[in-house]
């Protein structure tokens, strides 16, 4: 399968791409990133991802030396170089605080950027798939330390929680903090109870899919909100799900909490929500010019 990269404007196969070992992304995880999916040629929510990139840069006090227009142009060049036209293309761009001396002191150099483009598999059927999560002992980073709302390249918190869940036999982790549910390693969390879809407010990344789901559901008269969700609320939930750029709203069927497993077999409300979301996506695509 062809996988290509663009490093500071130089296009190559992924395996041939190189960055300097003094790059701060490599040394310290001092980088930000975004992922978009190009679905049937349509670059999904590119504008929103560029906006979040700038918010991350601001929160991490990183000066961006590449503009939205330059980034978009480089993404377009990389997709043209990739050349293939599968149903789903994965496009990740990473911007680092540049190449620097071996010190933590802040930026003196321009950013380095890397874009990676490859095919992304179509999701397994959500009606029959099994996603199990463990509410981990590892807590989510706090909003007021390393804010999860910075989409940085430093995923150690998530890696540790995912490792804990995987070692215990679960596909995914569900991190919490101070008794509140937060998010999974690469996805926001959702819970359906008493007629409302809810997703956690604190210690999470502001997922672009999360915001689009809220917009889509609310405009279709289905209640969806961002709020604090206590860990114990899991016990009363009717359905639980995750959301991300690659998965949209995707059901979770098993949650491990404090040594007990809770299964969620109903997809009734997920099916209703998913219909609305798919219509929202199709309407959105009609506003775009596809790549191919
Ligand atoms: C920690 C975390 N939370 C949530 C998300 C979902 O965000 P989005 O919907 O923008 O893909 C991601 C996606 O990578 C993530 O890494």
Automatic annotation (TrEMBL):
PANTHER family cross-referenced by the UniProt entry: AMINO-ACID AMINOTRANSFERASE, AMINODEOXYCHORISMATE LYASE
Any Pfam family: Aminotran_4
Name assigned to this protein: Oidioi.mRNA.OKI2018_I69.PAR.g9868.t1.cds
Listed InterPro entries: Aminotrans_IV, Aminotransferase-like, BCAT-like_C, BCAT-like_N, Class-IV_PLP-Dep_Aminotrnsfr
Family: Belongs to the class-IV pyridoxal-phosphate-dependent aminotransferase family.
SUPFAM superfamilies: D-aminoacid aminotransferase-like PLP-dependent enzymes
UniProtKB keywords: Amino-acid biosynthesis, Branched-chain amino acid biosynthesis
């Amino acid at each position: 399968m062809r996988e290509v990269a663009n490093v500071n404007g130089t296009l190559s196969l992924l395996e041939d791409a190189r960055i300097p070992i003094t790059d701060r992304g490599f040394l310290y995880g001092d980088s930000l990133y975004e992922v978009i999916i190009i679905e049937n040629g349509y670059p999904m929510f590119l504008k929103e991802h560029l906006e979040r990139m700038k918010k991350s840069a601001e929160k991490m006090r990183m000066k961006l030396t590449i503009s939205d227009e330059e980034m978009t142009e480089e993404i377009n060049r990389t997709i043209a170089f990739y050349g293939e036209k599968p149903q789903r293309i994965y496009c990740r761009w990473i911007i680092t605080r540049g190449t620097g001396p071996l010190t933590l002191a802040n930026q003196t150099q321009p950013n380095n950027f890397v874009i990676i483009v490859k095919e992304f598999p179509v999701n397994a059927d959500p009606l029959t798939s099994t996603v199990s999560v463990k509410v981990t002992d590892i807590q989510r980073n706090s909003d007021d330390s390393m804010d999860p709302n910075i989409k940085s390249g430093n995923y150690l918190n998530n890696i540790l929680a995912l490792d804990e869940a995987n070692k215990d036999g679960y596909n995914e982790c569900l991190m919490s903090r101070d008794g509140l549910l937060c998010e999974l390693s690469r996805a926001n969390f959702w819970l359906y109870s008493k007629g409302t879809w809810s997703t956690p407010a604190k210690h999470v990344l502001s997922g672009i899919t999360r915001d689009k789901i809220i917009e889509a559901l609310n405009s279709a008269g289905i209640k969806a909100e961002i709020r604090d969700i206590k860990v114990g609320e899991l016990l009363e939930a009717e359905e639980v799900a995750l959301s991300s750029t690659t998965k949209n709203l995707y059901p979770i069927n098993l949650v491990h909490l404090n040594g007990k497993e809770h299964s969620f077999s109903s997809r009734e409300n997920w099916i209703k929500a998913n219909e609305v979301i798919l219509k929202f996506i199709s309407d959105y695509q009609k506003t775009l010019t596809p790549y191919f």
